[in-house]
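We store chain and fold; thus.
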Amino acid sequence: MGVSIAEERAEAVRLRAAFVEAGATNVDCAILQSAETLLDLYGEDIRARAYVTQDPARGEVMLRPDFTVPVVQMHMETGAAPSRYTYCGEVFRRQEDHPERASEYFQVGYELFADNAPAQADAEVFARFADTLAPYGLRAVTGDIGILTAAVRALKISDRRRAALMRHIWRPRRFRALLDRYSGRTPVPPTRKALLGASDPMAEAGNFIGLRSETEVAERIAALHADAAEGPLCRSQVQLIDTLLAVRETCPFALEHLHDIAVDLPGLLPAVEGFERRCEAMAAQGIDVDRLDFEASYGRTSMEYYDGFVFGFLAPKRPDLPPIATGGRYDALTERLGQGRAAPAVGGVIRPGLLLQLGGAA
C-alpha cells in the first residue's frame, strides 16, 4: 500500500517537532528557488534532475530540489554561530534514471552552523540522527570526502591535472578515467594522437561551427599539448589512491588502514587526524564507533556539495529503497554563498515517506 501525502506530511511534522525539542529553530524556505544560484553552484548538470520554469518577474527558477542551499543563504544573511535549524517540506527531483522513485517527496532536516570544534559538531549531528532513527533498525555508514580531496592535493602532478581530478571527485567514472589517462593505463586515442602530431592543427581545422570560438579551440589544443608533455603519473601514487578508495571497514580498522596509507602520502595525515578526532567525539556522544562502518568512497555519487564528513542510514531489509537519511559537512558551500565569508556547517535530511514504507519501528 502506498503512503499518502497526508501521512507523509504528518510524519514530517512529527520528526521536525523532535528537532525543535532538541533546540533547533524551525525555518521555512520558498518552493521556487533562483535557477541562477543553483546553476552557479552545480553547473548545467542540475537541469537533468531539477524542474525548471520561467517566471515573468524573476526569470528562470527551479522547484526546490533541496533545503540546504536556501537555509545556508538565510543563515549567511542573518545568522550567527552557533545556530541550529530544522525544517520540513516537499522537494522536487526528476528521476529519469529511476522512474520508479518519487519525484516529489518530503524532507525533514537538521543543520548546525558552528565556527569551531568541527569534530564535535559532526558528532552532535550524527548522534541526533542516530537517536531519531534508532527504532527503525537501519544501518549507518560514514565516509569523509575531505580525505579523498586531501589525497588528490598531495599527488605530485600539475595544477591543471589536480584541478581536473578535484572537479570530478563526485563523478567516480570520470575520476577513474582521468586517473587511468594520467597514469598511462589508457592509451591515447588515435584522434588525439593525430591532433598532437599535427604541425599546425588550426590550419587543418576547416570552417568553425558550434559554440566554441577559435581562441577557445586553440587554448584547448595548447592544454592537450601541455598535458602530453607532463608525462605519466607515477603508478605508485595511483595505487595509493586505489588503496584509499577501497577502504571499507569499521571505523577503528579504517583509521588504522588510513594511517598506513598516510605514511606514503604524508599530505593525507591532517585529514586522517580529523577523522580520528571525530571518532573520539562520536564515542563521547555514546555512538558505538567500534561497530560503525566507514567507506572511503561513500557519498561520491549523490552528495556533491559535501566536502568533509558524510553519512547515511540505509534499510538492510529494503535494498530497493534509497537511503532513508543522508548528511554531511559543507563548509565550502557556505563560503561560496557567503561571498568569501565562511560559516562551517554540517547537517542532514530524513525522508519521512521512506520511514513509513518500512512499516514503523523495528
Notes: The CA atoms of residues 263 and 269 lie 8 Å apart.
